[in-house]
Amino acid sequence: MRNLKITLAYDGTEFHGWQMQPGWSTVQGVLSGVLSKVAGEPVVAQGSGRTDAGVHALGQVASCAVGSPIPVGNLMKAMNDVLPAAIRVLEVAEAGQEFHARKSAQAKTYQYRIYRGAICPPFLARYVYHHPYKLEEKAMAEAAAVVRGEHDFTSFAAVDPESGQEDEPASNRRTLFS
Predict the structure, then answer these.
(1) Which residues are catalytic?
(2) In the chain, which residues fall in CATH 3.30.70.580?
(3) pTM score, two decimals?
(4) Contacts by 172-177, CB closer than 8 A, 24 or more apart
């Protein structure tokens, strides 16, 4: 079995988040279905993190084990030929057996954008929060200073029901805000 690291981007508007859910279209579900079809074997991609419904990603990392001998370049091309336009595989690489997208994650970056113009252009509307009103920028900067720094989010870690272990590895519990 080969262990693959897959980097993908997606527009999450039409998906009910990352994680597979019966009866709902999710990024993990669609990606795993396409991987299974292309590789000719059941494959479930594990993501570096979960996103909520409607959330987009520019560089989400996933990992999976496959027995298929298809070269990674051909695998990437075949997946992009079958995936919906809202999901694109940017890179497929062979990774060491110890690599796991979630457990090996060292950092995650989230970006929230506010469009402040009077009229939000339609090609930006899915990717920004439109707020054409005055903002109290000084108060926002002061509030941001409260969360700046390194924090321990252990108490927010979910318990994985299958293993009884915390869902997030220790490396993901501390987050630095800058």
Answers:
(1) 52
(2) 2-95
(3) 0.78
(4) 172/49, 172/102, 172/105, 172/108, 174/150, 175/150, 175/151, 176/149, 176/150, 177/144, 177/147, 177/148, 177/149, 177/151
